[in-house]
Please model this.
Amino acid sequence: MDNTKKLDQAACAIKTERRYHLDALPLPILRPERGPEKNVHGDLVLKNLGQGYLWSGDGDIPLVGGRVVVRMNGLGAGKVIGYFIEHGWLGVEVKLENAPAWHKQQTKGTEHAGKALVFGAEIDA
Model:
């Protein structure tokens, strides 16, 4: 098998991979690079999807134990307790300090109780 085919297979594996509850950062981590090609919707295509795990946040990736504010759905502040991968994108698992009542109700009795899986663009570190 030639190297190009091996790289294509590795890229495909990264794009479809799902892993949760990671204690350490998976490598490599990249910032998304767009275009110049466009998809059928006219959006710039990510050039480096499949070459590593992409971080959508503007800032640095928070470390386990670090405090973040989850802006998505107004979930509020919490502590990073791990990482996850979905379809080539890196996210953080956050233990919320004071989850909204609706979130507590939705996650009651599950492994996600009081926690949120969010991507970099959804938090302030």
In short: Residues 78 and 96 are 4 Å apart (CA to CA). The longest helix spans residues 3-16.
